[in-house]
Amino acid sequence: MAFKGTLKDFKVPDILQLISYQQKSGLLTFTSNDGFITLIFEKGLIVGVDSFPKKLELRSGSVLVKQDLISEEMLDRALSIQKRTNQKIGEILISMGLVSENTIVEALQTQATEIILSLFKWKKGEYNFKVIDFIDKSMKTIEPLPTDNIIMEGVQMLDEWPLIEKKIPDENMIFKPSNVESKNIKIVDENEDVKEDADKIYLTESETAVLKYINGKNTVKDLVEMGIFTKYKIYKSINNLLNKGIIHEERADDKYETFGGILPGNIEITKRKNNLIFYFIVLLISAVFIFSFFKPLKPFDESNCLLKESVERVISDGNLK
What we know:
There is one protein chain. This protein is of the alpha+beta class. It folds into 3 domains: about 5-165, no CATH class; about 170-250, Arc Repressor Mutant, subunit A; about 260-315, no CATH class. About 50% of the residues lie in helices and about 15% in strands. A hairpin with a 2-residue loop joins β3 and β4. α6 (about 145-165) packs across α9 (about 230-245). It is globular and about 90 Å long.
């Protein structure tokens, strides 16, 4: 069975469902003006992913750098070795003793899933499926992914994304932890049925993992580029943490608390106001000083307090601190 067409005829979930249902093996390639994505199937399971312009291995190498597991220099060295040996980057990093095999597997799985889920947002493009009876080992770049699970996640992502974007409309948003008693938080499995308890806040393992990197400095984009989960899962976890009151957005007045809570747009106005008050105080002191030449102040006389009281009153009226 071989077939091809456009995404106007069939949507991505329908195409994947057909291959999964018939447990076919072969190459499914989606192309658009921006590049292509190829999925490799073995008996209905996704066992390989390739993409252009940014290949799967480069994506995985980049997230390892973002997670501080390897350096840019280490990745460049692995790429240099790959050009000579044609080995996979993951295999090279493992042989160099830089990362574990499990770390590479997880990075590849996450980035492969990210690439596949991105297909669900394609509006235009063409697809072409070519049957292959035998899938060589070299073509298998990831652990087998159940296609039905990917379809469910992709459809769920499309349904929830508009609601998530209302809470997180900008990838440059920054969030910080809220003041919540740790004793009120309980960690549960992803699919665990939880009996609601008003005194407890239940966090899934993925929400907890994302929470570790929410520190009032990392943007949403930073969290996505770390690659600990797919973009959808990162956004969904942040949205859930917001709904549960565990985190809140880093506000502008939080960043400028050194200015006494004054927003940046008001700083210049405040400076001008303070300058006018300062000049007024200088004039007042000068007037009192000149007046003292004509009417000397007596030691310990109550009039000695005139200058102090005048300054204090002006400061008070001007709201200076």
